[in-house]
Every structure is written in structure tokens, then in C-alpha cells.
Amino acid sequence: MLPPKHLGADCNMDSGDTTWIIVSTALVLGMSPALAFFEAGMLRSKHSLSIISQVPDANQALRR
User: Fold this and answer.
1) How far apart are CA 4 and CA 9, in angstroms?
2) DSSP letter at 42?
């Protein structure tokens, strides 16, 4: 993969940077179910399923 032209030829892509981005993405996506259960715990029990299904749907909408 080539670096973007506006960064110049001296910009190298390091495998550590790529690894950090992948790990960070996995951590954020892993927090989504925890956020859903946290928000559902603050609501009445009949609304919990709705909130648990809305959090992953919102994440999916952000990825598009």
C-alpha cells in the first residue's frame, strides 16, 4: 500500500500502526454490547430488548 501523495515520499506505513488501528477497532466494537446492556439496565425491563437491539443497529448505520 502506498502512502497518500500529500504526505510525501518520506511517510512509511508501519505494521505497528496498522496493528493498533485493528486492535482499537476490535475494542470499540466489543464495547457495543456492554453499552447496550448498560443502557438497558437504566430502563424499565419492558424497554430493555428495544435498547439492546438499537445499539448494534446504530453502530451498523455508522459503518455505512
Assistant:
1) 9
2) T
- How big is the CA angle at 55 (ends 53 and 58), to the nearest 5 degrees? 110
Count Cβ atoms below 10 Å from residue 31 Cβ, excluding itself: 13
Taking the whole predicted model, whether its pTM rises above 0.70 is answered as no
Residue 9 three-state SS? coil
φ and ψ at residue 13, rounded to 5 degrees: -90, 120
The pLDDT tens digits for 16-31 are 888 999 999 888 888 8
Q: How far is CA 54 from CA 3, 16, 17, 37, in A?
A: 37, 34, 32, 11
Residue 4, phi then psi, degrees to nearest 5:
-60, 150
